[in-house]
Amino acid sequence: MTQPRKIIIDTDPGQDDAVAILLALASPEDLDVIGITTVAGNVPLDLTTRNARIICELAGKPQTRIFAGCDRPLAHELVTAEHVHGKTGLDGPVLPDPTMPVEDQHAVDFLIETLRNEPEGSVRLCPLGPLTNIATALQKAPDIAPRIAEIVLMGGAYFEVGNITPTAEFNIFVDPHAAEIVFKCGAPITVLPLDVTHKALVTKQRNDAFRALNSPVGTAVALMTDFFERFDIAKYGSEGAPLHDPCVIGYLLAPHMFSGRHINVEIETQSPLTMGMTVADWWGVTDRPPNANFIGDLEADQFFDLLTDRLRRL
Predict the structure, then answer these.
(1) How many angstroms separate the first and last alpha carbons of the chain?
(2) Is 301 exposed, middle or buried (0-12, 13-18, 19+ CB in 10 A)?
(3) How far, CA to CA in Å, does 249 sit from each of 5, 16, 41, 192, 305?
């Protein structure tokens, strides 16, 4: 029997982050969540850390180790997204205040220590928010880069352009300088951009399936997706809200459901007009060497079947 793969989820919950965390915690035979690190993004750090604790308790996994990380981007003021996620970041369900502790160690130090102590190539990093913690760890300890098995992240866009500016996706835009460090670090990178996450839509039928689980988790997920759906339907005219971050965990669990290309991705950090753009050389028109597996499509029905099936366990 194969051992579950060790992952660290780096996150700024967010309703879709919450669903991603639940999916990972529901899959212990596949994924060993050795820690959750929090970062400022969708809401400020104190709320993202609180929300991570709420979600672990909802999943019945209060023993999960949570580490608070960076409270601001490397070089910019923090931009948040309460207009999407509500003032708490988890608006929708009413969930109890968390009681589980946060670890004393800073998230960046936990990342460095773990990557140095675990066998080389045994830990995957799963960033679901701005890349500040990961970039800070790489800056502080460049020796960890070759020890990372893979960085599987939600961020960026190419054909779907941007969702916070005309050309930039939110996670990359919030800390483009961090994204540039990560994309240049040399570790294997898989990117789940808006191009694929906008195909993972919570239709009414899919949300009804969450609700039909008749569990605290199923009900909470249905209420969370109901809440942020109103924003996406109004903005994109789509039939439901895209579940961005769970695509990262879905990719780890069932990569055959996803397809993409190994291409070069550069991050724009200079232009005010296109700040945070992921310049993805999808057509191979430059001689820049490929540095990322850039996902473009998924089998949405299979993905939602897997998600609903796993959430049933919690």
Answers:
(1) 23
(2) exposed
(3) 12, 11, 19, 10, 14
- Listed in sequence order, the DSSP H helices in 262-314 are 300-311
Structural contact between residues 291 and 183, judged by C-beta atoms closer than 8 angstroms: yes
What amino acid is encoded at 44 in this protein? Answer: P
Angle at 85 between CA 225 and CA 156, to 5 degrees: 90
Find the helix packing angle between 216-236 and 15-25, rounded to 10°.
Answer: 140
Pairwise CA distance, residues 121 & 109, whole Å: 18
Q: Which pLDDT value is given to residue 240?
A: 78
Tokens of 50: 């609180």
Rounded to 10 degrees, the C-alpha dihedral 101/54/216/302 comes to -110
What pLDDT shows up at residue 236? 62
User: How many helices and strands (H and E) does the chain possess?
Assistant: 12, 12
Instruction: State which residues of the chain have pLDDT below 50.
Output: none
Per-residue confidence (pLDDT) for residue 229, from 0 to 100:
64
Contact assessment for residue 131 and residue 153, using Cβ atoms and an 8 Å cutoff: yes
Q: Residue 196 carries which side chain, given as an amino acid letter?
A: V
* Chain position carrying tokens 């960890």: 144
Burial (CB count within 10 angstroms: exposed 0-12, middle 13-18, buried 19+), residue 40: buried
Note the pTM of the prediction, 2 decimals.
0.97
Q: Backbone phi, then psi, for 184, in 5-degree steps?
A: -100, 5
Q: Catalytic pick from 198, 244, 256, 262?
A: 244
Q: How do residues 174-208 score in pLDDT, each as one tens digit? A: 999 999 999 999 999 999 999 999 999 998 899 99
- Look up 244 and say whether it is catalytic: yes
